[in-house]
Design brief:
3 domains, disordered C terminus, 9 strands, Multidrug efflux transporter AcrB transmembrane fold, 7% strand, alpha+beta, single chain
């Protein structure tokens, strides 16, 4: 612990000695970050929730052909319309990564060798439908970034083909949805970032009073966010729906770190010149803020570990961990050197008398006023460390809680905390009862597990996709894929098993039909399966390659299972279970291994598992942060005390969610671990000040509680409110999952502040009493983490 304080003191000496060089380092890192940010890609939809899976990769490479569908309504058989379809078909057929295009114009051209001028001739081939489709099918194994240019080209081709005015044309499909969603994610990230910055400016302007350059922390934290963009680009972490939520969170957390640095430096400038103030400030505030930052990173780390099979959550956690580390670093590299240069600039006009007074410690009133922060205007200490008492009793024994600097709010918080600490049994019992009620309420909360409900329901591509599904009976949304591996997959015994599977499956709930290689072979062989493998091979050789590769490719076979339309999440899980059970019950031949796969089959269980494992994620977060605090303090009381209020909040947040009807989403499921990591900062600051005051001669526990809450209560409340402002930007996100998460995080941050000021003081009283009775098991009861005297 002393080593950490010495390290930060050394960092402070180096920054104040070389502020320009420090800023140059920050600028070089910023330049490098732009290079990384240019490499960021985006992943949308179910693919963001589907982890590595060998069978899925096999399916993607062999059978998964993305597509774009063009839906045409109106005068669909007019010769001008069919010619436009033909032009679109021919142009798209030449586009890179397009396997083929299927359209009504193909059949008309095959019949007449050209597109006739007679509508009647066209209708003799295609009928007289009100709606027709053109399907652009991609090569297998394409990634989303590879598919998006095809969608862009389809939009260009649709305009170039010049469809008649009487025809309504909608370009839709998975690639169209992915492209629009990717664009919306990018726009949403920028908008949320701008909103968070704007809200932070408002918060700092009105809440962070009494200091110069009060908007400087937003510059530092924005630099940290840019560093984060660069880091995820170099690390290959893509942007996704969940990842875009990280940046308002980082602004909320990062501003907190910078505000703590800023406030403590301003405080030290009241009694010391810059060359002494910065090392003293960093030695005091650096360790607790550093531990708080690590606690937040550990909370996100718990999410990473517990969701390793789901990329979107892993990317969210990784981006968050990069972000808290880099916004902390930006506070050191950007905020502090600028403050140092500004402080030096101010002092150039003081003259010899002022400089001599500052060198001697700035004891008189003139030197204090020269800093611009007098007793009435100085900021509250946002994180007084155990190292340097900010306000010590004077020679007359003046109570530090009566200082004008703390204000009415500070004194009120101090007296309230003293009253609560004097009645620990009642306070903790009420907190426990509310926590228990919260855990009980948590069992009845609704869930948000359908990935399509994560996106704006009025997104044009989504609306178009729904129209397409309505016209096609569900399209790919109700098709699920089974990959069959093994040898001799064209053997009649294997095809007979497929027929058996179809008979059993169609009788199972929610399964509407099966399309398999057996279906294909029977259709081209008079409804019968040949008796020999040679006969099967002969039938398959007569099937057009485009059709055959849908069923057999690269040594694998493909079965399509049709599900019921508009299945809810629970029904989808039941359908998936039914298919797997039916595959087992159908008794595949030896050496034949059928596996249900595809993003539609893998994503729903993955998302639901994330929601159901939220208690595990929360438990990991508590365990990680406890281990961090125990390693730092080497004192059981000091490792446990900051976590007790956070455990209360984990229960209370369920009551808040129930009151506001906020469903449990996969993102919200990680909030328990985040709560522990983020909220630990407030409890650590209050606890450290408590032990600092308690170590003073003649100070009782209740006196220490009151002084601690008085001196830091208002400051952490202001700090917490600035964090709330940053998080509140999420409530304006167009993505429902992020909007709900925004409301949830805003409420939870408020609850952590309440818990830090209302339940931590009585917790400290109780645990201190236990420590005094058990002694050695709990470390130095006077607080081995406390270092008295000036840094």
């Amino acid at each position: 612990m002393h080593a950490l304080r010495s390290l930060f003191r050394t960092v402070g000496h180096e920054i104040q000695a070389h502020p320009v060089a420090t800023l140059l380092v920050a600028a070089v890192l910023l330049f490098a970050a732009f290079g990384g940010a240019a490499q960021i890609t985006s992943v949308t939809g179910d693919q963001a929730f589907t982890g590595e899976n060998p069978t899925l990769e096999t399916f993607n490479e062999a059978f998964d052909r993305g597509s774009i569908s063009v839906l045409l309504r109106g005068e669909t058989t007019d010769p001008a319309t069919v010619r436009a379809i033909d032009r679109f078909d021919e142009r798209m057929s030449t586009v890179e990564n397009v396997a083929y295009v299927s359209s009504p114009a193909d059949r008309v051209r095959a019949e007449y060798g050209r597109i006739p001028d007679s509508q009647a001739k066209i209708e003799r081939v295609v009928g007289s439908p009100d709606v027709v489709f053109v399907r652009v099918v991609f090569d297998t194994g394409l990634t989303q970034p590879e598919e998006r240019p095809i969608y862009t080209e389809a939009l260009n081709a649709e305009e170039w083909a010049r469809f008649p005015a009487g025809v309504d044309v909608i370009v839709t499909g998975s690639a169209a949805f992915s492209a629009q969603l990717s664009e919306l994610i990018s726009q949403s990230t920028n908008q949320l970032l701008g909103l968070a910055v704007g809200l932070m400016i408002v918060a700092l302007f009105f809440l962070f009073r009494g200091v110069r350059l009060r908007l400087l922390p937003i510059v530092a934290v924005f630099t940290g966010v840019l560093y984060t963009f660069g880091a995820i680009g170099y690390a290959g972490i893509p942007n996704s729906t969940l990842t875009s939520s990280v940046f308002p969170i980082l602004i909320g957390l990062g501003i907190d770190y910078s505000v703590q640095f800023h406030e403590r430096y301003e405080e030290e400038l009241e009694s010391a010149p810059p060359r002494e103030a910065l090392p003293r400030a960093l030695a005091g505030i650096g360790p607790p803020v550093f531990i708080a930052m690590l606690a937040a990173a550990f909370g996100f780390g718990a999410t990473w570990i517990s969701t390793r099979g789901t990329p979107a959550f892993v990317w969210f956690a990784q981006t968050s961990m990069f972000g808290v580390l880099l916004t902390f670093l930006a506070g050191l590299l950007v905020l502090l050197p600028v403050l140092t240069l500004y402080a030096r600039f101010r002092r150039r006009g003081l003259g010899e008398l002022g400089l001599r007074e500052l060198t001697d410690g700035g004891a008189d009133r003139e030197a204090t006023l020269s800093s611009g922060v007098g007793p009435e205007t100085a900021p509250d200490d946002g994180a007084d460390s155990a190292e340097t008492p900010a306000v010590a009793p004077d020679a007359s024994g003046t109570d530090p809680t009566d200082s004008e600097r703390v204000g009415t709010v500070g004194r009120t918080l101090g007296r309230t905390s003293r009253t609560l600490a004097a009645n620990p049994g009642v306070v903790l019992l009420v907190a426990l009862l509310l926590m228990g009620a919260g855990f009980q309420a948590g069992q009845g909360l609704e869930t948000l597990a359908d990935t399509e409900e994560f996106v704006p329901q009025d997104l044009p591509a989504y609306v178009d996709l729904q129209q397409f599904r309505a016209q096609t009976g569900g399209g790919s949304a109700v098709q699920y894929d089974v990959v069959v591996t093994g040898s001799e997959l064209t053997h009649p015994a294997v095809l007979e098993w497929m027929q058996r599977f179809e008979r059993v499956a169609v009788g199972a709930p929610l399964i509407q039909g099966v399309d398999s290689p057996a279906t294909l072979v029977a259709e081209h062989n008079g409804g019968e399966i040949p008796e020999t493998q040679a006969g099967v091979e002969r039938v398959l050789s007569a099937v057009p390659e485009r059709e055959r590769t849908r069923y057999y490719n690269d040594g694998y076979a493909h079965i399509t299972v049709i599900g019921a339309q508009d299945m809810e999440t629970g029904e989808t899980l039941s359908f998936i279970s039914n298919v797997k059970e039916t595959l087992r019950f159908s008794n595949p031949p030896p050496g034949v291994d059928p596996t249900l796969t595809g993003t539609a089959a893998i994503t729903p269980p993955s998302v639901v598992d994330q929601i159901e494992s939220r208690n595990v994620t929360t438990g990991l977060g508590v365990l990680f942060v406890f281990g961090l605090l125990l390693a730092y303090y080497r004192n059981l009381v000091k490792a446990v005390a900051p976590l007790v209020p956070m455990v209360f909040v984990i229960g209370w947040q369920n009551l808040y969610m129930a009151a506001l009807s906020i469903p449990v989403s996969p993102l919200g499921a990680s909030l328990g671990a985040m709560t522990v990591g983020i909220g630990a900062e407030y409890t650590i600051i209050v606890m450290e000040r408590y032990y600092e005051e308690k170590a003073r001669a003649g100070t009782s526990k209740l006196d220490a509680v009151e002084t601690a809450a008085t001196r830091v209560g208002k400051a952490i409340s202001v700090s917490g409110m600035t964090t709330v402002f940053g998080f509140s930007a999420l409530t304006l996100s167009p993505f429902p999952i992020l909007g709900d998460f925004g409301y949830l995080t805003v409420g939870v941050i408020f609850l952590t502040l309440v818990a830090a000021l209302a339940t931590l003081p009585p917790t400290l009283i109780v645990l201190d009493g236990v420590a005094e009775r058990l002694g050695p098991l709990f470390g130095d009861r006077d607080g081995d983490a406390t270092v008295q005297g000036n840094a």
